[in-house]
Design a protein that fits this description.
about 240 residues, mainly alpha
Length: about 240
């Protein structure tokens, strides 16, 4: 939807500015009659119609997926075809609708053909270049998405490797404490149940609050403290946000 809005806005604004400049510059170039003004106004939808039909052809023929050299050749040839079609449309508008016709020499026709060929070539370059940049952004996004997926897979793999090891050590420590210090064993069971509850919550929600993350870390360290006793000491240094 946004790309379609950009396309139509660029079409209407771009062609309106082009034909307005072409009409008023240089001063005195065109006579300010109602017929002449209406004729030049009609050139805007004419150019939009031709380029839009050409755009539909680009999409149908998948020219945006071709090589840059192929796209350049298409732009050159289609610029000429669009220019010729536009001049024919001008002739129809002049003679049939607006009721006047100026006989042009072969030189004048050739100059007009070259001028509009250049205009439509510029349109081609802008259109293809815009989609080239769009494809680069899409490729970068897909690349980042793939990297994120791989990182997530690595984290899940690491979690699956660490959890059994952690559980094995924790249960062994609790088993040893049951006879030596039942109170600590009870505390250790409470901590490990809290850790398991938090871990199950993490499986459902990929994002958790910082406070909950710190609770999980503290429960883990408390459990390890019960296991290692005086061999483990830790402190928290947390910078508060402004």
């Amino acid at each position: 939807m946004q790309r379609s809005r950009i396309y139509w806005s660029a079409q209407i604004i771009g062609w309106t500015i082009f034909f307005a400049v072409n009409f008023f510059l240089p001063p005195g170039k065109n006579v300010l009659t109602a017929n002449n003004i209406l004729y030049h106004i009609s050139l805007v939808p004419s150019a939009i119609l031709l380029t839009h039909i050409y755009r539909l052809l680009i999409i149908k023929k998948h020219w945006l997926k071709k090589t840059i050299l192929t796209q350049l050749l298409v732009a050159i040839v289609s610029g000429y075809v669009l220019s010729l079609s536009f001049l024919i449309l001008q002739y129809i508008l002049n003679s049939s609708i607006f009721g006047y016709y100026n006989r042009l020499s072969l030189i004048d026709i050739s100059i007009s053909l070259i001028n509009f060929w250049f205009v439509f070539l510029v349109w081609n370059i802008i259109y293809y270049f815009y989609h080239y940049l769009l494809n680069i952004r899409r490729s970068e996004f897909n690349s980042l998405k793939i990297q994120a997926t791989l990182k997530e897979a690595e984290l899940h793999k690491l979690k699956s490797q660490l959890n059994p090891h952690f559980m094995f050590n924790a249960l062994n420590s609790i088993r040893a404490l049951i006879d030596e210090d039942p109170k600590k064993a009870k505390q250790a069971v409470t901590k490990i149940s809290s850790i398991l509850r938090q871990t199950l919550s993490l499986e459902r929600n990929k994002l958790i609050s910082f406070d909950r993350e710190m609770e999980l870390v503290e429960d883990y360290l408390d459990l390890e403290k019960i296991r290692f006793e005086e061999r483990l000491h830790y402190t928290f240094e947390i910078a508060h946000g402004s």
